[in-house]
Fold this sequence. Notes:
heterodimer, A: mainly alpha, 16 helices, B: alpha/beta, Rossmann fold, 3 domains, six-stranded parallel β-sheet, 49% helix, globular
Amino acid sequence: MGAPSVNLKQIIIKITRDIDKNALRHSALFYVPSLATTLVSFLLFSAFKGFNPYEHNKLQVIIMASIIVSLVSVAGIQFLINKVVGEASQSEDRINQKTAASGFIKLAVIISAILSIAVSVILYKYFNQAIHLSALEFLLFMILGLFYSVIWVLTAAFWAWGLYKYPAIIYVISYFAIFIFSYFGYRLSPSDFIIGYAGGVALLVVLLSFFSWKFFRGKEKTKPLIENARKLPNLIAKNYWGILFQTFFILAIFLDKIIVWISEGTKVGTGIQFTGVYTTGAFLGLIPTFSLVALAYFTEKVKPLSKGMYSGTLQELRNRIQEYKQIYTEGLVTMLSIGFGLLAIVVILGQLIIRNTDVTLITLTIGVGTLFFEVILFNAFILPVFHKSHISAIAMFIVCLAEISTLLLVRDNVWFASLGFLVGSEAGLLLSHITTRKMLAEFDYNAFRAFQLDN
Amino acid sequence: MRICIISEGSYPIVRGGVSEWTQQLIKELHFVDFDIFCLAPTGQETWLAEYEKPANVKSVKIRGLATQRPLTRKSAVLPKAISDELVVCMAAVLNGTPIDCERLASAVKSDHPIYKAWLTSKEYWDFLVNFYETNWGASDFSEYFWAANSIFSSLLDTATLARQVPAADIYHSLTTGSSGFIGCLAKIIHRRPFVVSEHGLYMKERELDLAKQDITPSVKNQILNYYKSMVMTCYEQADFLIPVCQDHASKEVELGVDPKKIRVVINGIDSDKFTPGATKIPGTPMVGCFARVVPVKDQLMLLNAGKNVLDGCKADFVFAGEIQDKEYYKECQDLVEKLGIGENIKFIGHSDNMLDLYRRADIFVLSSQSEGVPLALLEAMSCGLPAVCTSVGGVPEILADTVTGFLVQRGDVENMSAKISTLLRDENLRKKMGSKAREFVIENYTIGEMSRKILKIYNELNTRETKSNGSS
């Protein structure tokens, strides 16, 4: 059995012919929350012009920092949620497993809240001295961080169970509310904008909590929290590579930006400064990540294949493996094609509309890096099958490392931060893809070997 | 002379016929030094307090058979020569043919877990796939893979354990299973003679065990081939085979063992200890079944027979013997309840005073599906009890049908209940048969005789080895 070969034309014909509508619907719904978040955030930061630059920056710091800090601090928990709830959803006894999942979700919410507060407290000194946040502003940052932590955990739980509709609807409603509340807050006084924003986020927390309680409550009483907590060390020990992967993945997305923001902030004395050029270019460059819809589509499409994948004769098993590899290749090619297309559009439109070559260069660098980065993510879905989660974690760590290595260069030219992301992603891609191809080339041997190590 | 006894799930960790036999042998041969190497189920690696350790036992090693070493994440890269040697041995196991112990012993040179890690190597995978495609192509691959994996894991555990067997003049295994296989490897490692006693027919007993398990026929065949491979290796490697009865000897010859290698040594008991008691206490007669509660003893059959008996006679059935298989015991309890005979059936478990039970009993019954020469039967006969037993293994060689008791076919519930009822109804017949039974045991089955025969085998091998060493 060789590694899958790529015939683009055939693949495109096959994809259009065999398109799995259900998988497509799920993968599209999976992207609704991200779309709603990005769109509303963009509108909020660009539509309201009544702030002085200092206040505007501060607001951005509070919102962006709360999002990033919460994402990083709950990354590990998100991975565990995905694992525990995902496995429960695959169980034949889904009703009772729902109760078990619900117990773990409660614990995850509590832990992520504690983690988020702990990280905020650690950052207090920096935020107070370097960014000059007042006690009230810091409190708002902390509350938003707490809210977002809960939001990420609950969203992960819905997705892990295979429920995409609930979060999609809730996010659309809530982000609409966030926009409205922020607008009314802003109308009262620009300084109240953030209160309105926090109110909208609170609504998102309430809606997600209510629907997750409604959906995940089982017929039986959930086990006491302490019982779930006792299982946690074992769960962490078994999944530490996955936890590291998720954490490095989140860090890798933001590290280049954080480096630039701090570097620029140190220069101008604001602590953190949201530069227009890099932030615009970097976020535009991340637009091709929407092609990850192909990964969501792929994961949905292989789900039925994965059940009973290894039953029957060796020939039957190898036929299924062949199909799996085919879907993998199709998914990868589709993702890269969409990503490449999106990048081309973003770069061309960006240059035409913004007319800033610095922005375009950053967009292009980040965009190409994003395509490589996506392949690492795509492979991260497959590598655990072969007990190779550590490869994905190391690949993501390489991206982070490359970003950090640009620390001194960024002071001269912010573009180096995007170069760090690009080089790191390419190096990570090489490691991840060489390993994946090696695993896929001898799929049956490598999969059974992984099972042996599990037992 | 130093003898290393290699046992498996018996002496000195579990009570039962084989353990009694070993304890008696060691005590009787008090002038010979013994080392004990015992393979035990995990968690049972302690010397049973009931067996006082004889002074001539010089060392004891009790090792868990399932060492459950975790596999290392890194596949072991063994030199090709060693990998090839292992592949040949594994092929023999899957084919149910004798394993080349020279190859295996030379491949497995230490008890390092690397050999188990080899089970995750590409060489091993290719071998398994090739073998599957040639022989098992139409069966479920996962089942085949996992069965092979657990077989080879156990084989490599056993092979590495052989490295821990102490140096001795002669290796004496008590069965042809894993302990026999370790004996074969000890023979190769230490270049000393090896003998194996067969108290029961290992293959037969494993077949019976497997028949009751809910596994697919192809997996069953795989496991049986593994057992067969170990047994055939023992037959090939043993300098002498010591069956406990002629019946076993004939079966060994049928399986290809050279008759010259076979030395039948019938079990013996202490007939001065096992004597009839004072006059029986009047009342409901007692039918005693004294055997470990395990499927091979088929207590279920006796319970069904008991129901028929109790429909026509008054009797109390007493089952004494260690409850080794809890699940099987539960099955027995359920059957008692279903048959509604709970009032007359007692499972008392292990008893420290078997002599008292023999003396209180009126009839001895054994419903085994497979046996060697059951010590319990000899002890019961020595105590003057008539017996009703299934005609399996060496039982027909001790129990003379219609003279010292009755023989029935394995699983023949009707006949067994008829014979028990006959004895229950006729006290004189019981007395007559019991008295003849005791006479027969005194004449033929004493410990002294048994020990002398075993010693003769040890001496013969030792002399032969000394001579061959001298000449070389």
